[in-house]
Design brief:
The structure is a homodimer. By secondary structure, the first copy, chain A, is mostly helical. Chain A is built from 8 helices and 4 strands. A 3-stranded antiparallel β-sheet of chain A has the order 1-3-2. The structure holds a DNA duplex.
Chain lengths: ~190, ~190
DNA sequence: CGTTGCATGTAAGGTGTTACATGATTAC
DNA sequence: GTAATCATGTAACACCTTACATGCAACG
């Protein structure tokens, strides 16, 4: 039953990268969005737990999604600003997205923690410099947490689902863990001075 | 004073990606390592807070590091197994690494949390499936934490510096935050059933 | 009238992965 | 002898980013 390599009749498995599905997913919240808007929503929504793709990347994924007929585009005239091209998810796209959510292997999160890797090689430099780096990281963390706490409470006008606050809270816990670790590091680095 | 484009005399700024410095950094722990070994150490040491590059990538970075004279290679004969090519950091490499650690802008960590982005679009699928996904993620998390706790205590024979345990503890805090978030998610998802 | 924000896109290149190829050595 | 581990490497490609180019609209 399962895909004999020869009988490639039903082998429709258009197999796109995660980024494509991330973009496609933003179209499931009930609004038609342009590439420009999607760029904004991706920053506003999943930046803190799933990085934000470059603008050019988003446009490229939209082309691919349309080619796979997972999304359709239509021009939208605007008086107060330049016209735009809005995208809408298709039923085929909804199905593909659902399959992607359901039946992917559960990959481990990938963390590229730049301040941590620098500290990992911190024996090469003056500890005072390390404290500066980690302190600056801490400030960014606090900003991130503010962001996430706001997003969890007020999703003003933004396209989301009922599960969004839950994910924001999840992400906040991760960053709070980072904050705890950061403070621990700061305390221990202070002892080295 | 700052680099006139013409007077390119002192413009030695060999400007390598973070991965190159991550590999180079592993050579500062006092052992000469081969590409094969570096692949192992990178998995063993910073996988949980800085992803592990592909094997072919490591070999490529080693070539580049040598070209920049940040590292030197020398063949090492082994009786019990195939000979290898071991790499050693050079004084120029040490200097470049120290500068990299000190004077980079403090980039935010990049998190690509696959389970979280899938939950973010979880309104497309049956909640029971989401619980399965998150539960599987939880199991991986526990493994990760075991890893990190062991690394923090016993660095058996592995090349590390005095700061390593600190970074492992930091990473552990981040993953413990993830664990907290995961349990929160699981609890709330159960209410949806 | 120049700057900023909206909006779309291309070009070029760097980063990183998978898959493959090779060969030695150890263990079953 | 054949599988697994050690060890190095290449080829092909996918992914992603930076930088640039274009044009409209609004604001001061």
């Amino acid at each position: 039953m399962a895909a004999t390599p020869d009988a490639s009749e039903k082998d429709d498995e258009v197999d796109l990268p995660a980024t494509a599905f991330a973009v496609l997913g933003l179209l499931t919240f009930g609004q038609d969005l342009s590439g420009y808007e999607l760029r904004g929503w991706s920053k506003g929504s999943f930046r803190h737990f799933y990085w934000s793709p470059a603008q050019s990347q988003i446009y490229r994924e939209l082309k691919r999604l349309e080619a796979a007929s997972f999304a359709e585009s239509h021009p939208v005239a605007q008086q107060d600003r330049p016209d735009k091209i809005a995208y809408r998810i298709t039923p085929a796209g909804e199905q593909a997205l659902a399959r992607w959510v359901e039946s992917q292997p559960v990959d481990r999160p990938v963390l590229k923690h730049h301040p941590a890797i620098r500290l990992f090689f911190g024996h090469m430099v003056d500890p005072a410099v390390l404290i500066d780096i980690v302190t600056e990281h801490r400030e960014a963390l606090v900003e991130t947490l503010d962001d996430l706490e706001m997003q969890s409470v007020a999703l003003t006008g933004e396209p989301t689902s009922g599960l969004s606050p839950l994910v924001f809270d999840w992400a906040a816990e991760i960053h709070r863990g980072d904050l705890r670790g950061t403070d621990l590091v700061l305390k221990r680095l202070a002892q080295l001075l």
